[in-house]
Amino acid sequence: MQFDFDNKQRKEILKTVSEKLENYYSSTKDFKTNPDLNIKEIRESILTKELANGISPDKAIEHVIKGLETFSVHTPHPKYFGLFNPRSNYAGIIADLITATYNPQLAAWSHAPFAVEVEELIIREFANKFGYDGNADGVFTTGGAEANLTAMLCALNHKYPNFAKDGAFGLDKKPVVFCSAEAHHSIQKAAKVVGIGYSLVESIPVTDELKLDTEILQQKLNELDLSVYSPLMIIGTAGTTGTGTIDELNQLSFICKKNNIWFHVDAAYGGGAILSQDLKHQLTGIEKSDSITFDAHKWMSVPMGTSIFLTSKNDILGKTFRISTEYMPKEADKLTITEPFTHSIQWSRRFIGLKIYLSLLFYGWQGYEQTINHQAEMGQYLRNKLLKSGWLIKNYTGLPVVCFTKADFETDTNFTKEILDKILAKGKSWLSVYPIKGIPTFRACITNYNTTEKEIDELVDELNDEVISYVGQ
Ligand SMILES: *Cc1c(COP(=O)(O)O)cnc(C)c1O
C-alpha cells in the first residue's frame, strides 16, 4: 500500500473528481432539492468494512459523491429558498482546493506571510466598507457563532481588564447581554461558553416591525438592579435569521454610548448589503458599533467556514487572546505584524480568507454588487408575485427574505405545515416555515445567485397549486 500516488494516478483522480463536480455544478437544478430522511438507508449506505484496507480511489470518490448527491439538501440548487446557505461560487471552490493543497499554517505570521497579509487586507477592506476608521482590527472566524463568541469575549475583556486572568470568578457584578427575541441563538451559546451563563442573556421583545423594541430595552436598563447586575453589551441584529429584519442600529448605538455599553452588530447575513450602493443605507449606524459579525459564507456565496469578526477597538483582540509561548516561531518578532494566534480563538488556522480574496480577484467588488442587487431584486419580484396571487407578506425588510401566508388561514395551524410537507416530499423546491408573532408563515429566501424569475414563478405556482388542493380536501 502506498501513501502517495504517482503523477499519472493523481491526474486521473483529479480528472474523475473534476468531471463529477462539473456534472453536479452544471446540473444542480435537476436534483431533488431534499432527500428522504430514511435513517436506516442512510446509515447502511456508509462504508465500514472497507475502512480496514481501503478501496480504489475511483470507487471511493464515486461512493462519496453518490452519498452526498442522494442524501443532502441541495443548498446550491436554484430553487433552494432556504436558510442563508448559498451556492458556492467557483472562486471559493477553487480557493478551498488550493488551500488544502498548500495547507498554509496561519497561526504564525512567519509561516504564511502571504496568506496572513491577504487576510489582513481583506479585514481592512471590510472594516473600511462598514465605515470603521483606519484603526479597526479584525480576524477571520469559522462562522458567525465563533464571531459572536469573539465579540462577547472582547466585550468582557474591555469592561473587565482582569477577565482574561480571573475569568467570571473575578466579576463583581453579573454582566447582562441584551439582544432581541429574534436574535440568533449563537448568542445564548456564547454566554454558555464564556461562562456567564445564558440566563444573563436578556431577550427583548420586538416591535410590530419585528425590530428590537428600544423602548422596552431602555426600560429594562432603567430597572436593572445595579447592585447585582451590570449591562455588558447590546447586540443589534442586521438581518435576523427568521425574517431578515434589521434592528434600529442608530438608536442602539445611542443607548450604548450613553450607558457605556459595548455595541455589537450581528450582521452575519445582512452585512452583505454593505456591498451594494442601493442597499447599504439600511445598515446606517453599523459604523458606530464596537464590533461586527459578518458571514461571508452566507451572502458572499463562498463555501462554509468563512466569517469575519471586526472591531473598532484595535487593542481588544490582543488583550483578549494574547498568550506568550516558547514554541511558536519567533522569526517575525521584530516586524510590525500581527501574530494571528494572538488574535483568535483558533490556533492552527486555515487560509479562510482566500475564498474572499480569490472571489474578489475573479469578480471584483463590482461583480458582488451586481449579484447582491440581483438577489435583492429577486426578493422584490417574489414579494410582488405573491401579493398578486393573494398572499399576505408578514415581514418588513429590504433584504430578500420573504415571510408570507394567506389571510384566510392565519389561524389554521395545519395550513403551512401540511403544504410544506407536500412541497418537500416532491422535492422541486425547498423553503421553510417560520412563526411570526405566533402565526406560522412560509419563509423563502433568495440565497442563490443563480435564482431567476423562472424559479420564482415555479415556486409560486407550486404554492398556489398546493393551496387549491388543501382547500379542496
Ligand atoms: C447564521 C447566523 C449566525 C450563525 O452563524 P454561523 O456562520 O452559522 O456560525 C449568527 N447570527 C445570525 C444573524 C445568523 O443568521
UniProtKB/TrEMBL annotation:
- Gene Ontology terms: biological process: carboxylic acid metabolic process
Requisite cofactors: pyridoxal 5'-phosphate
Q: Which GO terms describe its cellular component?
A: cytoplasm
Which residue positions does N6-(pyridoxal phosphate)lysine occur at? K298
This protein is called what? Glutamate/tyrosine decarboxylase-like PLP-dependent enzyme
Instruction: Write out the similarity annotation.
Output: Belongs to the group II decarboxylase family.
Q: Name one GO molecular function term.
A: carboxy-lyase activity
Question: What InterPro entries is this protein classified in?
Answer: PyrdxlP-dep_de-COase (IPR002129), PyrdxlP-dep_Trfase (IPR015424), PyrdxlP-dep_Trfase_major (IPR015421)
Q: Could you list this entry's UniProt keywords, alphabetically sorted.
A: Decarboxylase, Lyase, Pyridoxal phosphate
Q: Pfam families under this entry?
A: Pyridoxal_deC (PF00282)
